[in-house]
C-alpha cells in the first residue's frame, strides 16, 4: 500500500491526545456513598473491572477512528502493476483508430462508435484542469495541440472513418511529441483500436518510458471479410481488338468458405464478361477475366463483388490507355537523304502497319525537342554519333525510352564507344570477318515469350558473315537475346535508368548477315516496339503519396486538374517538369476511390485510378491476452491493457491513474469506530 499525500501521516501523533486523556481519567478517584458496607468489597472489585474494560474499548475506538481519518487524508492506494502515482495536472493523449476496419460491428454497434464512447469516458474520468489530445489516423495539424474537455468532446463528435493507415510506432511517436511539449510531469497515452495484426506486427516498439501507455481493445463479433486485393495484366502490351487477360487476386480473410461469389468487370461503364468463384477460408485466389477492347483511348475500369459488413474493399479501380498508334522514330544516316534509300525492310515492316506510326528523319535534321514524343528510336547505320545527339539520346533512354542501335559498316567505333559507355553498356571493339551463325535464342526474354510454339535447339537461325565483336563492360547488365556460335552476342539488351538499349552486332544490310531476310527479324523488331509502350501503373493507393508520371509533357502553361469521371470531385495537383518528363503529386488531396482524368486546359492527358489501402482488409487482430503477452515478451513495462468488456472503463481508469483507492474505506471504518464509541458510552453503564 502507498499514499498519495504521505505527509499527512504525521497527524498520527494526534493519537497521543486520547491516550493522555484516558491516562489522566484513570487516575481520578471518586467517593462512593454506600448504605450497606457488607458487600462493598465485592461490588467495588466488579465495578472497577468493568469500568477499566469500557475505558480501554473507548480508547481503542478513538485511536482507530483517528488513525483511519489520518489515512483517509493521506489517500492510501494499492498501485496497479507497481505503478507510482504522481499528483498534479495531467496531459492525456487519446488515439482513436478510425481506419476502415473499425466499421465492423459488435453488440454495441460499430467499433468506431464504441471507441468514441470510451474516449468520452476517459476524458470525464480526469479533472477539469487536465489537458487532452485527440489523435486519429488523419494526423491533422489541429491534432498536434492539447484541448480542454469541451474542445475534446466537440472534435470527438466530428470524428469519421478515414482511408488513412498508421502503424503503432507512428502513433506513439505523435503522442510523445505532444505530451513531451506539454510541460507537465504526469503524461498518459491511450490507444483505442481493434489492434489488427498489421498495426503491430514487424515493428520494434520504441516508446517514451516517462509516458504511461494504455491499450484499450474494441472487439468485433465477426471478423469475416472478402475483398479484392489487386489486379494486373498478364501481358504488358495493350492493343485494340486484342483479347485481354486480366488477373485479379481475391482474398478470404474469414473462417468460412465462399461459393459461387459473383465478380463483375466494368470497362468505361459497360459490364464485361461476368464470372463467379469459390474460395476456401483463410486463402486467396488468382483468377483471370477475359475480354476485348474494341476502342482505343483511356479505359476507366473496375472490378466489383458484394460482401458485408466491411464494404470499403469490395471495388477495385484501375485505368490504362490503349494507343491508337505507337509512334516510333528512325534516325537515318546523312548518306541516305531520300526515303527510298532507307532500309526497305523497315519500311516493309512498319510502313503499312496501322498500329505503328514510323517517322523517318535525317541525322542532320533532328529536332531534339520532339524526341520525348516517341517511345522507340532506331539508329539506322549512323557512321558517327555526335555529342549533341548522344546527350539527347541519353536523356531519352534515362526517362524511359527504348533505343535500338544498328551500326554502320564504316562506323566510327570511338564515337560509338563514347556514346555507349555513358549507358554502362558494352561497346563495339573491332570487326570479325569469320563466318558463323546465330545459335541460341533467349526464350525467357519478354519479346520472344509468345513467339515460338516449340522451343527446340534445331531451329533455323540467321547466318552471319561479318559482325562487330562487342567488348565487355564490367558494369553492364547485359541480357543477350540472340547469341552466335562463337559465343559473341548478336543482339543484346541493356537496362539504363527507366529505359533500355538494344545493341545489334550487324547493320541492317544484307552484306553482313541474312537477319533482315530471316523470319526472326519481324517478331524481334515488332515485339521490341510493342514492349516500348509506357508501363504506367494501373492504380494508385490513397494516402501513399506516390509519384504519377505523365505519358507526355503537354505544351503550354495551363493548369493541371484531376477530376473524377462522375465530376463530383476535382483537385489541382502539383506538377514538376524535369528533363522533358512531367510528374504529378496529389499530396493526400484524393479522399475517395475511383477513376479520375488528368486534364490540362481542354486536353485529357491520362486516366488515373485510386483505391483504398488494403492493409485494413485483413481483420486478424490481437485480443487483450495476446497483447499483454506480446508486450511482456518485449520487456515493456509502461504499457497497461484495459479490457472494457469485463469492467467499467471509469473504474479501470481510476485504478490505473490512482491505483485502487482506499480513502473511502477509511472513512467508512472511521464512522464505524465512532459509532462503536458512542454505543459504548451510551449503552454500557458502569
Summarize the structure.
The protein is α+β, with helices and mostly antiparallel strands and 686 residues long. 24% of the residues lie in helices and 29% in strands. Strand 19, helix 8 and strand 20 form a beta-alpha-beta unit.
Protein described:
The protein has 686 residues and is α+β, with helices and mostly antiparallel strands. Helices cover 24% and strands 29% of the residues. The protein has 13 helices and 37 strands. The strands form nine sheets. Strands 18-17-19-20-27-26-25-22-23 form a nine-stranded mixed beta sheet. The protein has a five-stranded parallel beta sheet with strand order 6-3-7-8-36, with helices on both faces. Helix 3 packs antiparallel against helix 4. The chain is elongated and about 160 Å long.
Overview features:
single chain; 686 residues; 24% helix; alpha+beta; elongated; nine-stranded mixed beta sheet
Query: What is the strand content?
Result: 25-35%
Q: What general form does the structure show?
A: elongated
* Helix run count: 13
Distance between the termini: 41 Å
The radius of gyration computed from the alpha-carbon positions, rounded to a whole number of angstroms, is 42 Å
Instruction: List unreliable stretches of 5+ residues.
Output: none
Mean pLDDT: 86
Structural class: alpha+beta
| Main sheet strand line-up | 18-17-19-20-27-26-25-22-23
Helicity, in percent? 10-25%
| Total beta strand runs | 37
* Largest sheet entry: 9 strands, mixed
Amino acid at each position: 500500500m502507498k499514499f498519495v499525500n504521505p505527509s499527512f501521516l504525521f497527524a498520527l501523533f494526534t493519537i497521543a491526545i486520547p491516550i493522555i486523556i484516558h491516562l489522566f481519567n484513570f487516575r481520578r478517584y471518586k467517593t462512593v456513598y454506600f448504605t450497606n458496607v457488607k458487600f462493598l468489597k465485592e461490588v467495588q472489585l466488579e465495578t472497577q473491572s468493568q469500568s477499566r474494560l469500557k475505558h480501554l474499548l473507548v480508547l481503542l475506538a478513538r485511536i482507530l477512528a483517528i488513525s483511519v481519518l489520518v489515512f483517509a487524508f493521506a489517500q492510501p492506494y494499492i498501485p496497479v502493476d507497481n505503478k507510482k502515482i504522481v499528483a498534479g495536472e495531467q496531459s492525456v493523449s487519446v488515439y482513436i483508430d478510425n481506419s476502415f476496419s473499425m466499421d465492423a460491428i459488435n453488440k454495441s454497434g460499430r467499433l468506431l462508435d464504441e471507441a468514441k464512447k470510451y474516449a468520452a469516458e476517459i476524458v470525464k474520468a480526469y479533472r477539469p484542469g487536465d489537458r487532452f489530445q485527440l489523435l486519429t489516423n488523419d494526423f491533422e495539424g489541429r491534432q498536434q495541440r492539447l484541448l480542454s474537455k469541451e474542445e475534446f468532446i466537440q472534435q470527438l463528435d466530428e470524428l469519421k472513418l478515414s482511408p488513412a493507415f498508421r502503424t503503432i510506432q507512428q502513433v506513439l511517436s505523435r503522442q510523445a511529441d505532444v505530451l513531451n511539449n506539454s510541460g507537465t510531469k504526469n503524461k498518459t497515452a491511450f490507444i483505442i483500436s481493434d489492434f489488427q495484426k498489421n498495426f503491430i506486427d514487424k515493428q520494434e516498439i520504441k516508446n517514451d518510458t516517462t509516458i504511461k501507455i494504455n491499450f484499450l481493445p474494441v472487439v468485433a463479433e465477426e471478423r469475416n471479410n472478402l475483398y479484392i486485393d489487386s489486379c494486373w495484366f498478364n501481358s504488358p502490351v495493350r492493343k485494340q481488338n486484342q483479347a485481354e487477360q486480366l488477373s485479379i487476386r481475391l482474398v478470404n480473410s474469414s473462417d468460412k468458405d465462399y461459393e459461387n461469389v459473383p465478380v463483375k468487370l466494368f470497362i468505361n461503364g459497360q459490364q464485361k464478361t461476368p464470372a463467379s468463384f469459390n474460395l476456401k477460408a483463410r486463402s486467396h485466389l488468382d483468377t483471370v477475366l477475359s475480354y476485348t477492347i474494341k476502342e482505343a483511348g483511356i479505359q476507366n475500369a473496375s472490378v466489383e463483388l458484394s460482401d458485408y459488413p466491411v464494404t470499403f474493399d469490395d471495388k477495385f479501380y484501375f485505368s490504362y490507355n490503349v494507343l491508337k498508334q505507337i509512334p516510333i522514330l528512325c534516325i537515318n544516316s546523312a548518306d541516305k537523304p531520300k526515303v527510298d534509300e532507307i532500309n526497305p525492310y523497315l519500311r516493309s515492316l512498319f510502313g503499312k502497319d496501322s498500329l505503328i506510326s514510323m517517322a523517318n528523319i535525317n541525322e542532320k535534321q533532328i529536332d531534339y525537342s520532339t524526341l520525348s514524343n516517341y517511345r522507340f528510336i532506331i539508329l539506322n547505320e549512323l557512321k558517327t554519333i555526335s555529342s549533341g545527339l548522344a546527350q539527347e539520346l541519353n536523356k531519352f533512354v534515362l526517362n524511359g525510352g527504348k533505343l535500338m542501335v544498328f551500326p554502320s559498316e564504316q562506323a566510327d567505333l570511338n564515337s560509338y564507344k563514347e556514346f555507349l559507355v555513358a549507358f554502362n553498356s558494352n561497346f563495339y571493339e573491332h570487326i570479325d570477318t569469320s563466318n558463323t551463325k546465330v545459335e541460341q535464342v533467349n526464350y525467357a526474354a519478354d519479346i520472344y515469350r509468345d513467339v515460338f510454339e516449340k522451343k527446340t535447339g534445331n531451329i533455323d537461325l540467321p547466318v552471319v558473315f561479318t559482325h562487330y565483336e562487342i567488348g565487355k563492360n564490367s558494369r553492364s547488365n547485359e541480357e543477350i537475346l540472340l547469341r552466335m556460335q562463337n559465343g559473341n552476342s548478336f543482339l543484346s539488351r541493356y537496362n539504363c535508368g527507366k529505359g533500355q538499349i538494344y545493341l545489334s552486332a550487324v547493320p541492317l544490310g544484307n552484306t553482313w548477315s541474312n537477319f533482315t531476310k530471316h523470319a526472326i527479324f519481324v517478331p524481334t523488331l515488332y515485339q521490341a516496339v510493342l514492349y516500348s509502350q509506357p508501363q504506367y501503373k494501373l492504380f494508385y493507393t490513397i494516402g501513399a503519396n506516390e509519384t504519377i508520371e505523365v505519358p507526355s509533357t503537354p505544351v503550354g502553361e495551363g493548369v493541371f486538374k484531376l477530376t473524377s469521371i462522375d465530376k463530383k470531385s476535382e483537385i489541382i495537383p502539383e506538377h514538376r517538369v524535369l528533363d522533358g518528363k512531367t510528374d504529378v503529386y496529389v499530396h493526400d488531396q484524393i479522399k475517395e476511390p475511383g477513376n479520375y482524368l488528368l486534364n490540362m486546359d481542354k486536353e485529357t492527358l491520362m486516366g488515373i485510378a485510386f483505391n483504398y489501402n488494403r492493409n485494413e482488409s485483413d481483420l486478424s487482430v490481437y485480443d487483450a491476452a495476446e497483447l499483454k503477452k506480446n508486450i511482456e515478451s518485449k520487456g515493456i513495462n509502461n504499457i497497461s491493457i484495459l479490457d472494457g468488456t469485463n469492467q467499467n472503463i471509469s473504474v479501470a481508469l481510476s485504478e490505473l491513474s490512482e491505483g485502487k483507492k482506499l480513502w473511502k474505506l477509511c472513512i467508512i471504518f472511521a464512522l464505524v469506530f465512532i459509532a462503536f464509541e458512542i454505543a459504548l458510552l451510551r449503552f454500557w453503564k458502569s
